[in-house]
Each structure stands twice: as structure tokens, then as C-alpha cells.
């Protein structure tokens, strides 16, 4: 009998085909509605490998529900803050993610937000869509240029580097804050300056968040950090919502401590703080970082490769633990 591979939400057919080609018969949550917690706890029973989405919390309760035969949890995301990795490790359950395949898609969205918020593109679109009268004018809806401005990257992993490359092509200078050193060649290519977090916040015109979400980065950016930023600076977040204290972001915007924000992720996703919704100087998009057809297919395929390796008791291509 083939291993019980349970897929907790709809994933692109490329991933499912890879599983079938490997002789596995995945059981997929196929209903129109997203799986509820109660349904999830029931659905995972007896799974040998779980393929999970970032919307599913994998904790002791879920691992208990799955049962002791569980060998792996393969997240279809590079971020895995939805998974209690320590709990999985205690039970010898492998955790995997999907790094690499969504780097460009996410960097595109991060830089798209930079352009949107600095050039007031969302606001401009709202003017037209709401049938407000408008006329080209020398002083009409002026934004700020990004050339010769500093982009400060928090978390210089693959996505941070890819975002920096885009920014450099647009004439920005690059500073970064990273706990781990980056490749010397990349630092040279980008002419990137490593700064402390405080110095980066104080000197950057745009600050873009690209670090993982974990206990150490929870609310890394809050009231004190907004006060350090320039009043003309913009915050971009395409990483995870809880890295930024969302209420304190609203407070900082209200107080004019920063100039605006571009957000793809939210602290209490999918809820968005009401104080953000009415602001013109904030661009809000619904977690679209990896949302291209090609990227999602690649993520599903990589998650499937991880699941296949685990079910064959082999080392998966992209392990977390
Ligand atoms: C990820 O992979 O972590 C992204 O947030 C998914 O869009």
C-alpha cells in the first residue's frame, strides 16, 4: 500500500502529478472552502507525510491528531512560521520548505510596492476609479523619486538580495542588516553597506523587510523603530506580518513619523488593521509575494519532491530540521 500523503489544501497540478509519477496517491482537501481547524484535525489522521499551506498551524495538537506514523511536514512556502519545528523535531518529524523558487516573484512584489508607494500609484488609481475629476498639473499628485536614495534591507537572504538587485538597477544605494554574513561577491556587486538595525533605520529612505518570522523577529519593527526612521521614509513588508507591530505602524503613520508603507503581509492575516484601510499613503495587497502561476507550480513541485524523499526515507531536498 502506498504511503498516505495528505495535502491540506489545493495545490497546482504540477505538484500532484509529481506525487502520482512517484507512485504515490495523495489525498487532497478538495472542497471549495478552506479547511477549518476541526476538519484539518480529522483530515490529517493516519498521514505519513503532510503537505501543508502557510495557513495551517502545525503544532502539538495537529501532530497528535496525525499520529505517530507521521514522518514529514512539507510546507508549500519558504516561510514556516506556521510550523512548530521544535515539536516536529521532538517527534522525529522532518519539516521542509520551498526556498529558491519564489525569490524573484517575491522580490518583484517588494519592488512593485516600493514604486507604488513612492509614486502614489494606488492613490492615483483610486482617483480614476472613483470618477473624481482630475487634470494633469505641475503639482498634481507628486511622489518622490527613488534614484540616489537608500534602500535598507532587513534580512539579506535570497529575497533580500534579489530586491536589492532591482533597487540598484533603479539607481538606489543599498544598505542591509543581517544576522548572518553575506557572500562577499554579492556585497561587492551591490556595493552594499552592512549596518546595525538602528543605523539602517535612521539612514534609509525605504526600509524593506525580508527576514524570517520567529520569536527573535516578532515585532522587530515597532514604535521605537518608527521613531528612528526618517519622516520621509517608507516601510515595505513582504516577509511576514508579525515582524511589524501593525498598531504601532498605524500610530507612526498617524503621527507622521514615517511617510508611508507598502504591505503584502499583515500581523493578523487575513485581517487588516482598520487604521490602514483609510490611509492614502499606504499600499495594501493580499499576500501576493509568490502568486504567479509559474512560481506556485514550482513551489508545489518542490514540496512534492520533499514529500517523495521523506516517504522513501531519504533526505529531502530542502529540509528545515
Ligand atoms: C512564502 O513562501 O513564505 C510566501 O509568503 C508565500 O507566498
UniProtKB/TrEMBL annotation:
Does the record bear Cytoplasm in its keywords?
no
Indicate yes or no for the key word ATP-binding.
Answer: no
Where the record annotates domain D-isomer specific 2-hydroxyacid dehydrogenase NAD-binding, the positions are 111-289
InterPro entries reported in the protein's UniProt record? D-isomer_2-hydroxyacid_DH (IPR050223), D-isomer_2_OHA_DH_cat_dom (IPR006139), D-isomer_DH_CS (IPR029753), D-isomer_DH_NAD-bd (IPR006140), NAD(P)-bd_dom_sf (IPR036291)
One Gene Ontology cellular component annotation held by this UniProt entry = cytosol
Q: Which UniProt keywords apply?
A: NAD, Oxidoreductase
The entry lists its GO molecular-function terms as:
glyoxylate reductase (NADPH) activity; hydroxypyruvate reductase [NAD(P)H] activity; NAD binding
Q: Where is the D-isomer specific 2-hydroxyacid dehydrogenase catalytic domain?
A: 5-321
Please report which protein family the annotation says this sequence is part of. Answer: Belongs to the D-isomer specific 2-hydroxyacid dehydrogenase family.
Stated name of the protein:
Unannotated protein
Amino acid at each position: 500500500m502506498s504511503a498516505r500523503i495528505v495535502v491540506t489544501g489545493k495545490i497546482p497540478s504540477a505538484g500532484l502529478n509529481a506525487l502520482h509519477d512517484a507512485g504515490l496517491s495523495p489525498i487532497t482537501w478538495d472542497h471549495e472552502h478552506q479547511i477549518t481547524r476541526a476538519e484539518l484535525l480529522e483530515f490529517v489522521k493516519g498521514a505519513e507525510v503532510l503537505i501543508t499551506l502557510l495557513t495551517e498551524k502545525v503544532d502539538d495538537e495537529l501532530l497528535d491528531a496525525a499520529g505517530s506514523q507521521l514522518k514529514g511536514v512539507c510546507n508549500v512556502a519558504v516561510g514556516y512560521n506556521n510550523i512548530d519545528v521544535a515539536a516536529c523535531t521532538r517527534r522525529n518529524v522532518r519539516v521542509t520548505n520551498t526556498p529558491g523558487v519564489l525569490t524573484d516573484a517575491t522580490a518583484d512584489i517588494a519592488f512593485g510596492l516600493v514604486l507604488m508607494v513612492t509614486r502614489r500609484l494606488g492613490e492615483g488609481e483610486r482617483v480614476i476609479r472613483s470618477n473624481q475629476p482630475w487634470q494633469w498639473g505641475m503639482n498634481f499628485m507628486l511622489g518622490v523619486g527613488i534614484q540616489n536614495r537608500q534602500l535598507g534591507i532587513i534580512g539579506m537572504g535570497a529575497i533580500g538580495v534579489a530586491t536589492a538587485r532591482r533597487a540598484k538597477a533603479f539607481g538606489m544605494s543599498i544598505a542591509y542588516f543581517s544576522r548572518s554574513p553575506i557572500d562577499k561577491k554579492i556585497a561587492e556587486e551591490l556595493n552594499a553597506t552592512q549596518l546595525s538595525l538602528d543605523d539602517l533605520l535612521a539612514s534609509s529612505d525605504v526600509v524593506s523587510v525580508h527576514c524570517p518570522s520567529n520569536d527573535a523577529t516578532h515585532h522587530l519593527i515597532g514604535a521605537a523603530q518608527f521613531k528612528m526612521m526618517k519622516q520621509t521614509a517608507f516601510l515595505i513588508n513582504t516577509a511576514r506580518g508579525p515582524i511589524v507591530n501593525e498598531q504601532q505602524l498605524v500610530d507612526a503613520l498617524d503621527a507622521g513619523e514615517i511617510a508611508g508603507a507598502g504591505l503584502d503581509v499583515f500581523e493578523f492575516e487575513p485581517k487588516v488593521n482598520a487604521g490602514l484601510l483609510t490611509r492614502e499613503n499606504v499600499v495594501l495587497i493580499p499576500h501576493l509575494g509568490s502568486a504567479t502561476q509559474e512560481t506556485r507550480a514550482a513551489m508545489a513541485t518542490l514540496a512534492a519532491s520533499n514529500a517523495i524523499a521523506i516517504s522513501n526515507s531519504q533526505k529531502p531536498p530542502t529540509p528545515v530540521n
